[in-house]
Amino acid sequence: MPTTAKAIRIHETGGPDVMKWEDVEIADPGRGEVLLRHTVAGLNFIDINHRAGTYPLAKLPAVIGMEAAGVVDAVGDGVSDFKPGDRVSHCMSVGAYAEKMIIAADRLIRLSDHTPDEIAAAATLQGLTAHYLLHESWELKAGQTVLVQAAAGGVGLLLCQWAKHKGATVLGTVGNEEKAAYAAAHGCDHPIVYTQQDFSDSVRDITGGKGVDVVYDAIGKDTFEKGLGCLAERGRMVSYGVASGPIGPVDLRVLRPLSGSVACGGLGNFIKDPVERARNADELFGLIAEGILKVEINQRYALEDAATAHADLAGRRTTGSSILTI
Length: 326
Fold this sequence. Notes:
By secondary structure, the protein is of the alpha/beta class. The chain is built from 9 helices and 16 strands. β15 (297-302), α9 and β16 (321-325) form a beta-alpha-beta unit.
């Protein structure tokens, strides 16, 4: 029988105040679906974009949130890969800011015993994002040089560590000295405090004028154009977010003398295939279990306090990953 659960739901787009903690009706799982009881939800910039209307949702009102971990409570007809009691995570399915959720079984990632729920909720979306950035948008090789924008953030820290593990030299932008030290402790060879120095000048100084092979940019409007000037010959700008606002038109005349390129990234394209998603998740969580990648959960909020979490994330008052406990 349908039940109710508490959730963060928006009835209109806007600031953090549009998020309401209220009861929502949860249906029984249909064919191919499961009823998932969440234990922890992740906090990501895409949640802010949905709340603000930058990335429009299909309809309102809507429960927001794109990442969580939990336990399967019930399964619908035709579900054979999961059973009640299985621990799972998921990402890129709207509705994670809720105690319970109906979700297609083929969207789930099975969790091994070595992956706690908190780690899964903090790292599924961000970790799989780092995976495709390093393996698909640009296949990073040992000896190459990268620039990670927002190096002290959740994805940024994983990119720094993973790129360092692959043998790359890592440059990263951060907002203050504290974040610089934090990024340096997580694989960033050359933290650049962009509030104190022009990051493009610093990149040229550090690389002896050559530039970097790849720039990973989730900031958007404030950093994109200047980031193009950091590219080495045959370098690539990878844009995977617009935290500061949409990017304007790109002038190809900037790239042509370098034989440079621009790639856009969206995680949804890299998790559609359950086999690919499971393989990438196994690699990600395996590296975390080995201690090669460290997921730093530095902020914890109760789910009902999601408005505070959004304000902190948007205000760049966070480091590493943040989670919402349920």
